[in-house]
Amino acid sequence: MSRSRSYRRVLAAVALLVFAAPLQAQRANRDAPVRGGIPVLAWHYFKDAPEPGDGNLTESYAAFEAMLRFLKEHGFRSVFPEDARLPADGGGRQVILTFDDGHRDHVRVAEVLERHGFRGIFFVIPGRTRAESDRFLTAADVERLARAGHRVAAHGWEHRSLPASGTEVGGSMARSPAVLEEHTGADAAPDFAFPFGHYTPEVAEALNERYVYLHTVNPGYWDALSPLVPRMLIMTDVDPAIYRDYLLGGARYAPRLEPLTPDGAVADSVAFLVRGGRVPENVELFAISADAEGRSYVRRPLGERLRVRGDTAWVDVGGYLRAFHGPTRIVLSFALVVPERGGALRYLSPGVMYWRQDPAAVLPRPRPDAPPPASADTAAPPPPRS
């Protein structure tokens, strides 16, 4: 074992002890305000020439290389979470690069990353990892990624929504680490990505007993402290300028709205603690969750849906969902932002997720003989049961 890998494992073990406390308590106990944030990007599928039927999570290799060139030209270096340092702490421009679902095209993706001097976290679905596969990474592919210095981590067990499946929680906790350790020949990674971006406070607490870093699909910057790691999903129907502005804005991140309502809870109205003065009048809600027209990363002014009383701000999430996302949308992943000159966004809050209804009661429970669902990590739940 190399000295650097051994050092990373020691750091991960120490971090696991630190992050084992309740998630909300960790955020509430922060003494100093956050200054700067770590951008985190997430991709899914790749093709040389994506077609309309491939969906908005299929990126072209050319666009991927263009993003890597942008990162390199602007002085970014890729890091794993335990190595991340905020800009105010001397971290400079750092980025965490992640890839979901463990498709075979990720072998080529890894080669592109290596050519540009980057490394990534590849979230695979251990229940679909076989000795041979035309669609998913094989055991040999996983071993190759690990040898090249990438991280291979778990994306559930069979990619089922955790709040709706106790077997998925159990498999993610026990079976996934064992499979990855067998394939990589190393300790299981401390990272985990929620299938569909779905979690509840209880699910997050349970997974945090086994994993240090819990990757969401909530928009925003990571504070290098919280176990919940927000990620910006790369989507082909979203203006690339949104991602470039996000990357360059990490040093300016100074959140003024701290969640008080537990992240991932069922809540019609969500409370935020106001830090550092008054709340701007032009606060907007910036959601990855697709609206009623199928558009992601749309932002809208909150207006009367934001109320401030003393040092507490209340956001009418339920009213926002009903107004802009339609009756079938029961979950919303978002951050609170204000627009800056030139169109860039200043993030006032971390990325969060809230449910309009109890997901355990609404999401369909998988049958033991049912095939795993297709991936669509946009915080959109499978269709509710009738």
Describe the overall structure.
This protein has 386 residues and is of the alpha/beta class. Helix content is 27%, strand content 20%. It contains 10 helices and 20 strands. Strands 1, 4, 5, 6, 7 and 11 form a 6-stranded parallel beta sheet that branches. Strands 14, 15, 18, 19 and 20 form a 5-stranded antiparallel beta sheet that branches. Strand 5, helix 4 and strand 6 form a beta-alpha-beta unit. The longest helix is centred in the middle third of the chain and has 19 residues. The radius of gyration is 20 Å and the shape is globular. The N terminus and C terminus are likely disordered.
| N-to-C series of helices and strands | HHEEEHEEHEHEHEHEEEHEEEEEEHEEEH
Q: How would you classify the helix and strand content by structural class?
A: alpha/beta
The percentage of residues in β strands lies in 15-25%
- The proportion of residues forming helix, as a percent range, comes to 25-40%
Computed over alpha carbons, the radius of gyration is 20 Å
Write down how many β-strands occur, each being a DSSP E stretch of 2 or more residues.
Answer: 20
Measure the end-to-end span. 53 Å
Number of helices: 10
The whole-number mean of residue pLDDT values reads 87
Shape: globular
- Which runs of at least 5 residues are low in confidence (pLDDT < 50)? 1-22, 25-29, 381-386
Largest sheet: 6 strands, parallel
